Amino acid sequence: MERIRFVPSVDEVLEIALPHLEEAKDAIVSFGQGCEGEPLMQWQLLERSIFEFRAKTDHGTINLNTNGSFPDRVEKLCEAGLDSVRVTLNSPRRQYYNRYHKPKGYTFGKLVDSLIKAKEKGIYTSINLLVFPGFTDRDEEVKGLIELIRKTNLDLIQMRNLNIDPDLYLKAMGRGEGMGISQMIEVLKKEFPSLQFGYFNRTKENFYK
Fold first, then answer.
1. Has residue 185 been placed in a domain?
2. Could you report the per-residue pLDDT of 27-74, keeping only the tens digit for each?
């Protein structure tokens, strides 16, 4: 898709998104989409935009898709009126997260802190889990997910296929065997009966359905 070559103003953000929030059924607007740069780099623009959204309407859902790199900025956006936060990761374990995401200027711990801070602010939280069968469903990965969910009180796991050369990925992550994705889900459901699974961001009317 075409990338814009400028940072929009608050008025330009409102011009695009406000009519959707006000008029669309089950409206949701999201800052960031995983392949369009990190929205927290423009957190002040987002903060002002969210304030303006909520000054004009309480309709619709305002979501942040992020790598969770700046917990303090996430907290500011939550206070401005954000409804939900989704953080992307391939693994709940630091070493494997680092091998794939190669974070610069932040650490895996910041990601976890962002989820914790958002939850403390009453925000609906999810992770965008990049799934690779045979890796994601390994015993240690599932144990890591359990620890992460327990620590962050996560609401939803969104599961997406990680489209990557399998030999390249396994060379970085090491080879091993998984229990099967369906079995992994059953383990997590048993451990966390209220944990939700899905593929898309939810609107606030459907957060806990």
1. yes
2. 999 998 766 689 999 999 999 999 999 999 999 999 999 999 999 999
Which domain covers residue 182, as residue numbers?
A: 27-196
Collapsing DSSP to helix, strand or coil, 87 comes out as strand
Contact partners, residue 95, CB within 8 Å, separation at least 6: none
Q: What is the pTM of this model?
A: 0.94
Asked if the structure places residue 183 within a domain, the reply is yes
pLDDT tens per residue, range 69-100: 999 999 999 999 999 999 999 999 999 999 99
Closest to 32 measured CA to CA, from 42, 20, 21, 44: 42
Burial class from Cβ neighbours inside 10 Å (0-12, 13-18, 19+) for residue 158 reads buried
Place of tokens 């903060």: 47
State the Cα–Cα distance between residues 134 and 130, nearest whole angstrom. Answer: 12
- Residue 16 belongs to a domain: no
